[in-house]
């Protein structure tokens, strides 16, 4: 769900409580009495917990300088009374989705106790709809994964509440909200997101996905613009782990699961068979790259027939060196070189390969994007990229190619492989 969250005040991490027994299997109350909401849900959490614990024990010692996989969770368990106090009885709504609503709250930065409005740090509190059984499963998944995964490009889960029928999650607050809110905004009074900022965001998101795929352990499954949150400096963090799954093990290439996700982003092999590969996430990332290039949504029923699904419409254009420039967002003309646009189109096309085996790993995607970013920083301040582009303020149409485009570009982002 796309949310307007914001990041908690940065600083040294404070350890709060906790062992693996803090992963919830039954609801708790302030006096630690247990009341069952759904016994099958409890066993599901317990089973996922043990699988994830085994996965962690296999790879926790491996070096990963950008993040950590914790052997035990570092989450605070809140009471519902604390949640009501922190959110002032849930009176400031930040966003809403299928899971429920997200409210603004305030906690003491060191103790995580509720604090007065305007003091301490701001947090985002996600509150489950009582009638949502799917939401319950997604709540459990969030706790299981984000309780043990720590990375600069994953949103930080601070704690949770499970009391009677109340289920809540407490996150760091992300000041700029979701990428979706910025990338597709069409307010003429607001400057569109620049090419440089778009690159920064997708590189951050790619690093987060690469960390999840580390040793092929976690498949995110719902990668999309609304699930990428931005802090005050437009640093990207992947949020909403409700659909995340443990990756294949024992030599298997995929896991089989019920098809879930977002239409327009989901990989074709997953939709057709229910087979979920680590590189199914790479396909979703390719869709996001296409959105970044064009400024258009992955799925938009307001567009003409044949154009409603962005990949089906524009993927063929990516392979034509004399046409790919025509799909670039007209609002960012002059901000990128022809070579950078060419290499971005090539990378996008590789991510969108029909066969998951032919898609690059997210580690390779990060490296490719970093090379594109370096090209952008070295680019002379000229208008070499100005050529016909999609008129993205209305229903898109193709423009004319300039001579500068036809002579630009060249080279491959992959080199010799």
From TrEMBL:
Q: What is its main location?
A: membrane
Q: Where in the cell is it found?
A: Cell membrane
Which GO molecular function entries does the Swiss-Prot or TrEMBL record give? ATP binding; protein serine/threonine kinase activity
Q: EC number(s) in its UniProt entry?
A: 2.7.11.1
Top-level lineage group: Eukaryota
Family annotation (PROSITE patterns): PROTEIN_KINASE_ATP, PROTEIN_KINASE_DOM, PROTEIN_KINASE_ST
| Region feature (Disordered) | 1-35, 374-417
Which residue intervals are annotated with compositional bias (Gly residues) in the record? 407-417
- Root EC class: transferase
Please list the residues that bind ATP: 127
Q: Return the similarity comment.
A: Belongs to the protein kinase superfamily. Ser/Thr protein kinase family.
* Name of this protein: non-specific serine/threonine protein kinase
């Amino acid at each position: 769900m796309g949310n307007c969250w914001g990041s908690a005040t940065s600083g040294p991490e404070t350890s709060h409580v906790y062992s693996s027994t803090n992963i919830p299997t039954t609801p708790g109350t302030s006096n630690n009495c247990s009341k069952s909401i759904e016994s099958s849900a409890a066993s599901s959490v317990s089973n996922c917990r043990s699988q994830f614990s085994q996965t962690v024990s296999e790879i926790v010692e491996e070096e990963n300088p950008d993040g950590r996989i914790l052997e035990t969770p570092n989450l605070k368990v809140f009471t519902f009374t604390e949640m009501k106090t922190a959110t002032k009885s849930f009176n400031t709504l930040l966003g809403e989705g299928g899971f429920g609503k997200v409210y603004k709250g305030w906690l003491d930065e060191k103790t995580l106790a509720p604090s007065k409005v305007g003091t301490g740090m701001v947090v985002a509190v996600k509150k489950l709809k009582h009638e949502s059984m799917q939401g319950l499963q997604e709540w459990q998944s969030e706790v299981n994964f984000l309780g043990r995964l720590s990375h600069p490009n994953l949103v930080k889960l601070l704690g949770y509440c499970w009391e009677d029928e109340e289920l809540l999650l407490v996150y760091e607050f992300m000041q700029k909200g979701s990428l979706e809110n910025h990338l597709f905004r069409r307010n003429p009074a607001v400057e569109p997101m620049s090419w440089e900022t778009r690159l920064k965001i997708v590189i951050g998101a790619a690093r987060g996905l690469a960390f999840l795929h580390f040793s092929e352990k976690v498949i995110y499954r719902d990668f999309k613009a609304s699930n990428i949150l931005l802090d005050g400096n437009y640093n990207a963090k992947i949020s909403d782990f409700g659909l995340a799954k443990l990756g294949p093990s024992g030599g298997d290439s995929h896991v089989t699961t019920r098809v879930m996700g977002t239409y327009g982003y989901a990989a074709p092999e997953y939709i057709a068979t229910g087979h979920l590969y680590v590189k199914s996430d790479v396909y979703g990332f390719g869709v996001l790259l296409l959105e970044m290039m064009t400024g258009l949504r992955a799925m938009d029923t307001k567009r003409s027939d044949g154009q409603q699904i962005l990949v089906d419409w524009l993927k063929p254009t990516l392979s034509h060196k004399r046409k790919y420039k025509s799909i670039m967002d007209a609002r960012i003309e002059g901000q990128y070189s022809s070579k950078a646009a060419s290499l971005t189109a090539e990378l996008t096309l590789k991510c969108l390969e029909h066969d998951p085996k032919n898609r690059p790993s997210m580690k390779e995607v990060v490296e490719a994007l970093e090379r594109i970013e370096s090209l952008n920083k070295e680019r002379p301040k000229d208008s070499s990229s100005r050529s016909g582009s999609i008129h993205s303020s209305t229903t898109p149409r193709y423009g004319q190619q300039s001579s500068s485009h036809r002579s630009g570009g060249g080279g491959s982002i992959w080199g010799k492989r």
